[in-house]
Write a structure and sequence with these properties.
101 residues, mainly beta, eight-stranded antiparallel beta sheet, 0% helix
């Protein structure tokens, strides 16, 4: 499995300047063992601190504070994970079922 990071986007200002959110996208590429088909997954990292997105990676969250959205190439949301200081605090795995842990 390999990750291909994209550029860090400019912040989006919300709530009359009280909140600024930054986004970075990456593509995960892996090969299925049995079918040998390539699989692509889109990762959307979102955080209030621009610096926490500089070195963020699927494989190393460091001290990341923010949210990671995992999507397939059709744009379907696969899961959402919330991180604080690089530790996973919550995950929503199926929006329809509302599974939260």
């Amino acid at each position: 499995m390999r990750e291909y990071p994209g550029e860090l986007t400019q912040g989006v200002v919300l709530n009359q300047g009280e909140i600024e959110l930054y986004t970075r996208y990456s593509v995960l590429v892996s090969k299925e063992k049995e079918s040998k088909e390539w699989e692509y997954t889109l990762l959307k990292y979102m955080a209030e601190n621009r610096d926490s997105l500089q070195n963020i990676s699927f494989f190393d969250k460091g001290r990341y504070n923010g949210t990671v959205y995992t999507l397939n190439l059709e744009g379907d949301l696969l899961n959402v994970k919330v991180f604080a200081d690089g530790k996973q605090m919550a995950v929503v795995k199926d929006r329809k079922k509302g599974v939260l842990s």
